[in-house]
Amino acid sequence: MATVATLTPHSQKDLLLVHRYTYPCPLRWADADAYGHVNNALFLRFMEEARTRMFRDVLADDETARRQNAFVVSRASIDFRAPLHYRDEPVDVHVRVIRSRAVSFELAYEICDAGQLYAEGTTVIAAVNLDTGRPRRLTEAEQAFITRYSNP
Which long-range CB contacts under 8 A does 58-63 form with residues at least 24 apart? Predict the structure, then answer.
């Protein structure tokens, strides 16, 4: 039986102990509401942008292989901590793996600046074959990639 390592998401102390991917996410003028706050629905997009860039190294180059080795989000959650006001500077999106299984893994996100946490979130990502519509096992290369961003 495989052991699954689990960390509590949303812990600043734990975040310092693991490898993470950081994406400086640009803000767009259209992201802000009438009060100058970044709309809460856009935080999912920020998480998606960071995750997509993080996984560029492990995704296949050709369309057939990408369809057979795809990833889909099966669950997402966000806890909002403070309003994010529109500005010219990007906001950091930190991503780390908090759980990995044979056919899925869970990512934790922190959307923040050096001194301010705006939101924390998680997504569960399932490995699927889009041609068959069925779950698939993570490949060895995918597992090795995920390990780079997991608890050492």
Answer: 58/141, 58/142, 58/145
